[in-house]
User: What shape does this take?
Amino acid sequence: MRTIAVAGTFDTKGQEFLYVKKLVEELGLQPYMIHTGVFEPAFEPEVTNAEIASAAGYDINEIVAKKDRAMATEALSKGMQNLIPKLYQQGKFDGIISFGGSGGTSLVTPAMRELPIGVPKVMVSTMASGNVSQYVGTSDIIMMPSIVDVAGLNKISKTIFKNAVLAIAGMVEMAGKLKEDTKETKPLVAATMFGVTTPCVDQAKAYLEERGYEVLVFHATGTGGKTMESLINEGFFEGVLDLTTTEWCDEIVGGVLAAGPYRCEAAVKNKVPQVVSVGACDMVNFGPIDTVPEQFAERNLYKHNPTVTLMRTTEAENAEIGKRLSEKWNQAETDMVLLLPAKGVSMIDAAGQPFDGPAERDSLFGALKQGITNKNVTILELDNHINDKEFAETAAQKLIDLMKK
Assistant: This one.
């Protein structure tokens, strides 16, 4: 029998979770109840809060005694993170669902993120109609708005609960109904792209695919870079074509599409062959032009579209970007290649275009050439624009060479 893990605070929302348990059973599935609350549950679960707290090195009685909600949430959330992947590996459940407000969502989603991609994960939450990036991260959690608070059973909440249970039941129960993909699997390559480096990546992708590789392209919008790094860490890729490292501009200068301080680490750490470049490192991203911070009002701004404004990076900023990238790539323990496009790093960093900046490119390239001291990193400066076919195909072939090696 297929099993659905139901996680939640059975002390404060016992009635609601008993209703969910009943729905799972009516569908002919096995509920696996996990109590994430601080106090005694309204019914006996399969996994107690004491077990969850213990998984994080805490005693549940001490948590109760302290009466510190924030501390309790942190401890139980950490315990869930440690325990849930182990329970899944032991075959205790096939999918997981939870219901809650901001606290309940914060308790369970970190554990959901620890499960492999493809394991059904549904979070019914009062937070689901807003920015859910802090809950979903780079995982495949399905966030479903609860419409009303998860507090009591009523006409609306019952409807939402039923739909949520039907959704995860379908994912768990119907998966076996679909035919397995019997096509020959091809080696996977990750590539990073931005609108202004699309021609480059499209050409490199076609070159690789003609030679038997499958290319997954990630949009370098912060989330895209984080997702790629996560999948590299999970071992999905034979090679990485990280030609668009623009997220570092936003990380350093303060734009809206930063991928965080760990960008460009996964391939190095996992010794995955990679070819890298500095695509779109001429720009920092902001929202509509009236949202650009006041201190940047006199900078070279470009209205990419009504919702995106680009700002040209300065020589000083390019020097810092080059320094930070050098620090990441200097950690490489295996061969990698850095390609520098002498005639421009994006569509609008080219002769006659609004961000054309030979001095800025010199600052970026100079910082990289000076900063990279690791002999495993080969630096090649090509007399091309990044979107030239020759540049794209050189990058693709260099990656093939590294993967074969």
Summary: The radius of gyration is 25 Å. The chain is about 40% helix and 20% strand. The CA atoms of residues 187 and 213 lie 5 Å apart. The chain has a mean pLDDT of 95.
